[in-house]
């Protein structure tokens, strides 16, 4: 599996297709496989890259840094784009991947050509739920049993299985230092509950000047209001109603793999049409 080192972290990635570049980012802390269906669906026309962020999939686990984990992810995505000579690239993803795409467009504008955003995260329920899911449960484990207990949690045990070098990096950490970083990263969510989108203020969002396609979600973590607010704020954006109604979403949540397959199937034509229009507009300007 190809890997690239960015800011001292080894990131696992894959490429498929050729043409204008799109980097796809999965939600949550999942691995890159969740974005494979939509990447494959566009690989006949675009150079699609899927990768595992730090602390996800087969990439390195590294708990540290002065910024929030989301901002670190954005900066490492910028490094990946530069290392693979992808820029300016389209950035696509949902939920956590959507947040990383937005932050990268804010922090590294010259590397971004457009955004393909699905299932925008926002609101108090999302802030509290994700704060515990990403950080709180591991803080509890570290307090109860140190880093050995953290490494034994299902999430980090899987990271170690996928990348055995992660074991030593985790076990060598001082539990107090681990807890301090995770608490700081957790506050990023809890303090962002009232923002239009978790991780970005309205003023920051207004600095995004690239074309954006927004596919709304309709659940507690990805409320319709967050997607509508984002569309209102971004001057060059288009909005799509939720392609998965809430009752269907709730039913599909019993099978996450199936849910993500349906999500890719329904978002794909919306993003394909958007990309075709943006590319045509770009060609007309340059021609």
How is this structure best described in words?
With 287 residues, this protein is an alpha/beta fold. α1 (36-42) runs parallel beside α11, α2 crosses α3 and α4 (124-152) packs antiparallel against α7. α9 (224-233) links the parallel β7 and β8. It has two domains: 3-122 and 196-279, Alpha/Beta hydrolase fold, catalytic domain (Rossmann fold); 127-188, no CATH class. The protein has helices spanning 36-42, 69-83, 96-107, 124-152, 154-162, 166-171, 175-190, 202-205, 224-233, 246-252, 256-286, and strands at residues 3-6, 9-16, 21-25, 47-51, 89-94, 112-118, 212-215, 237-240. Strands 1-2-4-3-5-6-7-8 form an eight-stranded mixed beta sheet, sandwiched between helices. The protein is globular, with a radius of gyration of 18 Å. 46% of the residues are buried.
Summarize the structure.
It contains eleven helices and eight strands.
Classify the oligomer: single chain
Number of domains in the coordinates?
A: 2
Kindly report the CATH topology of the largest domain. Rossmann fold
State the CATH class of the largest domain: Alpha Beta
The rough form would be described as: globular
CATH superfamily of the largest domain: Alpha/Beta hydrolase fold, catalytic domain
Mean pLDDT value: 95
- Number of distinct helices: 11
Outline the fold blueprint.
Layout: E1 3-6, E2 9-16, E3 21-25, H1 36-42, E4 47-51, H2 69-83, E5 89-94, H3 96-107, E6 112-118, H4 124-152, H5 154-162, H6 166-171, H7 175-190, H8 202-205, E7 212-215, H9 224-233, E8 237-240, H10 246-252, H11 256-286
Helix pairs in contact: 1-11, 2-3, 4-7
